[in-house]
Amino acid sequence: MENILEELKNDLNEIKKEHDLNEIKTKYLGKKGRITELSSQIKDLPNEEKKTFGANLNKLKTEATNLLETKKEEIETEILNKKLEEESIDISLPSTKIPMGAPNIVEKIVEEVEELLMSMGYDVVDGPEIEKDEYNFEMLNLPKGHPARDAQDTFYIEGEELLLRSQTSPVQVRTMLEGKGEKPIRMICPGKTYRRDDDDATHSHQFMQIEGLLIDKNVSLSDLKGTFDVIAKHLFGEDCKTRFRPSYYPFTEPSVETDISCHSCKGKGCNICKNTGWITVSGAGMVHPNVLKNCGYDPKEWQGFAFGFGAERLAMLKYGIDDLRAFYMTDIRETKNFDRKEAE
């Protein structure tokens, strides 16, 4: 047994690879290994020697197993150290910069307006993009045959009753119907809208609208002016001036175009404002009495105002973007510019 143990130690000192270690293990502890074969000699020994022989044999097996495990750990440690040495990493080197996109500016504009109006008590409401003609037109004082319908150039899905909404105003109708002519309403509805249009630098067949509605008692046009003034100053700075100009929309009376002072020339006149010093950003007005009636509100008791922005237009004005198609590109070389604009 002592000779076998010494031979095992000598064999282990000479090996460098784990494969060789497995061969050594088989040589000594395998089914036909030298230590295993000693077990077959027990039956030939006198009874008084069997106990001592068995104890020594078990001790030999334990020592052999420990020597093998120790050698295995040595080999594994050596392999690991060599690998770490060959594959060392210099943590002082600059990291690899991974190109990333940027938050879409249209989404950021929508979130900014949402947060502002929510702080003023407005609810953010959503509605279906596939809409009924009844909600998209008729209840908004646009009956069939109304000339303003031609200007909408609507995407119809089934006949003339189901369509892709051409504005987010149907959400205002649905909200008023839920109010049942009894509850005041403060809501905004940002969402996608669809119109038949050729895509170019300033037009798109799909765009984001942000519409707002307030219904209450003793509401006047001055309340609308004050609300628009707060939104404009929040988006374009405290020095931004606002004004109303008379206009026409079937669902509001009176109706107005809302203008802001040109942020580029500060009202002096330039190519952006067409030398007027003013830029139109939205349409608005007092909710038409017919719309109030259609939605269950008594126009003698309730009044309201509505306004609507194009989110892309707001973003183009705020960040100096001259092509709205840039908002929908996935080319990182283009979208990385949004990061810089946002930082500015």
Provide the fold topology.
Blueprint: H1 2-14, H2 18-29, H3 34-38, H4 47-86, H5 105-118, E1 123-124, E2 130-132, H6 133-136, H7 148-152, E3 155-158, E4 162-164, H8 169-179, E5 185-194, E6 206-216, H9 221-236, E7 242-249, E8 252-261, E9 278-287, H10 289-294, E10 303-310, H11 311-319, H12 332-343
Parallel strand pairs: 1-5
Antiparallel strand pairs: 2-4, 3-4, 5-6, 6-10, 7-8, 8-9, 9-10
Describe the structure.
The protein has two domains: 2-86; 105-343, Bira Bifunctional Protein, Domain 2 (BirA Bifunctional Protein, domain 2, 2-Layer Sandwich). 43% of the residues lie in helices and 20% in strands. It has helices spanning 2-14, 18-29, 34-38, 47-86, 105-118, 133-136, 148-152, 169-179, 221-236, 289-294, 311-319, 332-343; strands spanning 123-124, 130-132, 155-158, 162-164, 185-194, 206-216, 242-249, 252-261, 278-287, 303-310. α5 (105-118) crosses α11. The relative contact order is 0.11.
State the share of residues found in helices, binned by percent.
Answer: 40-55%
Total beta strand runs: 10
Q: Order of strands across the widest beta sheet?
A: 1-5-6-10-9-8-7
Ends: how far apart?
83 Å
Order of helices and strands: HHHHHEEHHEEHEEHEEEHEHH
Estimate the strand proportion.
Answer: 15-25%
The global form is elongated
The CATH class of the largest domain: Alpha Beta
Low-confidence stretches: none
